[in-house]
Amino acid sequence: MRQTDSIKSYHAHIYFDAATKEQARKLCQQAAEQFAVEMGRFHQKNVGPHPMWSCQLAATPEQFAMLLPWLALNRNGLIVFAHPETGDELADHCDHAIWLGTGMQLDLSVFD
């Protein structure tokens, strides 16, 4: 059994497309302001394992405990993919993944 102290941080990736771009930007900005999480670049292309355009929110475990329920209630139909950062990128992106909305197929070949 793994201990949760192996979790150094969390990433929440907000997925969007051309039609939901501004909705996603607003959600990410509100999250960054309200929870003091770090908002990453607003990628209007697929990056890494992500099957859609996305923006990353980086959070400490304490921030994430408040951020995740807020995203669940305020994502307004956007898909959110979240995962811990334990140092095992493959496991973090598949075995430890958290989906809000419809789960999607990630491109895990980037971890080969």
Give the structural class.
alpha+beta
Widest sheet: strand order?
2-3-1-4-5
The helix content is 25-40%
The shape is globular
Secondary structure: number of strands = 5
Q: How widely separated are the two ends?
A: 25 Å
Q: What would CATH call the architecture of the domain at 28-45 and 61-103? A: 2-Layer Sandwich
**Average pLDDT across residues?**
96
Q: Superfamily at the CATH H level of the domain at 28-45 and 61-103?
A: DOPA-like domains
Q: Which topology of the domain at 28-45 and 61-103 does CATH recognise?
A: Alpha-Beta Plaits
Task: Determine Rg (CA atoms, Å).
Answer: 13 Å
Unreliable residue stretches? none
**Beta-strand percentage?**
25-35%
Count of DSSP-assigned helices:
3
Helix-strand topology string: EHEEHEHE
Q: Give the CATH level 1 class of the domain at 28-45 and 61-103.
A: Alpha Beta
The largest β sheet comes out as: 5 strands, antiparallel
Give an overview in words.
The structure is a single chain. The chain is α+β, with helices and mostly antiparallel strands. It has a domain at 28-45 and 61-103: DOPA-like domains (Alpha-Beta Plaits), CATH 3.30.70.1240. It is 31% helix and 27% strand. It has helices at residues 21-35, 61-74, 89-94, and strands spanning 9-16, 38-43, 53-59, 80-85, 98-100. It has a 5-stranded antiparallel sheet.
Short description:
The longest helix has 15 residues, at 21-35. The protein is of the alpha+beta class and 112 residues long.
